[in-house]
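Hi P.,

Sorry for the delay on this. The queue was packed all week, but I finally got your sequence through. Input first:
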Amino acid sequence: MVKSSITNILKTAQKNENEPFGKIKGQLDETQALSWRMEQYMAESRNVLTSCIRLKSELQYDYFTELVLEAAKTSEKLTDKLRRLTLEVSVNPVQYENYKAELVTIHGIEVEFSEGILKVALPLLVPHRKDFYTDFLYKPLHTALQNWCLERIKKAMEIPSFEECLVCFVHVYNKNLPLVGRVRDHDNIEEKHVLDIVSSFCMKSDSGFYVDTFHTTRLGMEDGTLLYVMDSSRFPGWLRENSQPLDIEKDAL
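Then the structure:
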């Protein structure tokens, strides 16, 4: 009798765990745990920074950097879980589409097309090619380009379509932050996923037969990445005209 009651309790618990609300509760628990962990990293990093300023210690600054990076990675995991949770709990498609549109504004991604050149401004650096988590950039980038194309269709404006083209990556580093260890080799930068997304909207293909890439590094007031997509034949002239400007500097590193 007792054994039967325990079995029924276990079955009920397992059933509840498999129900939608049980799954959502589990996701909320995981999200809250990540939020707590990020808060701990930030609190400790603040203490280490205070000590670093007082002692003027490079070792303390290195530790401070590690803590901030851990907090940032935890934040990305938290954001990913919240996005997945949002997708599961949103039953109103219009509400969810508005949410995705707001993501573009929040991330500050800008898209413009002028004189045959598509420019995409990202307010952050493209991740290292070995980074395992890159959704924080690519999902908003996809949404930004999708919304931009839909707006141009509504206004009967041209959507660029490149066949043989070149994509120029301008990597901008904040000159007021330490540059050692931050400025990366161009061959360590993840360009494939960016090309996959951009090509799905305005290129015939991202194959090497159709697309060339060019990378350059600049110093500016904030970290960011500028993408310029143009017909290959236009690149030599564009490079001559923009080797110095671009509203950023090319200082000796």
